[in-house]
Prior knowledge:
Shape: elongated
Bound molecules: adenine
Strand content: 15-25%
CATH topology of the largest domain: Alpha/beta knot
Largest sheet: 5 strands, parallel
Distance between the termini: 46 Å
Strand order of the largest sheet: 2-1-6-5-8
Structural class: alpha/beta
Radius of gyration: 22 Å
Amino acid sequence: xxxxxxxxxxxxxxxxxxxxxxxxxxxxxxxxxxxxxxxxxxxxxxxxxxxxxxxxxxxxxxxxxxxxxxxxxxxxxxxxxxxxxxxxxxxxxxxxxxxxxxxxxxxxxxxxxxxxxxxxxxxxxxxxxxxxxxxxxxxxxxxxxxxxxxxxxxxxxxxxxxxxxxxxxxxxxxxxxxxxxxxxxxxxxxxxxxxxxxxxxxxxxxxxxxxxxxxxxxxxxxxxxxxxxxxxxxxxxxx
Length: 239
Ligand code: ADE
């Protein structure tokens, strides 16, 4: 997979994108990340990237030209890849696991990170998606882009060692993940549930599903409305 990021703050990506799974995926050649500074594409002799809004109003807007030219340069250097171009915007569609799964199917993702008060509206005509990482306002799109890259790259089959663990993650099943335990069996008088130690896989699976339902019911009841409950789930919910 190829990922391009357009930002005014390339240094923000230096540490985080070199570590852990994302760093390894790049070392192994499964992932190529290019960070570009769209200020370098400004046609203005002072390299300005923002300007006052027509009609007045508070703050500055990002100009369309530097971003357009940066995107053209990416198209020129990767003419053959199918691109998904994502604009980071707190007013965009909320990012979720389903979107990460869609992004993981793509060949080439391009993230545009904004700053300042907003975008010249014509920037939106250059993108395929406008995405928010949550109902809060960040100083810019960089952290949001990193969140989306992280959630996407870990789903690439070559990247996540244990494929099963992505399929059973909280959110990918439509339920939050059930509680899990590792050794010791007792810690400060807190015990591992008996059922997990008896080796009866049918009972264990039933317990895990019940606890996943319980946790989702308590913490995220909204999630139960968006999945189709199986007969087994309905029985467990009534218990
Ligand atoms: N830029 C500023 N806040 C943002 C958010 N919540 N999501 C995406 N981009 C942003």
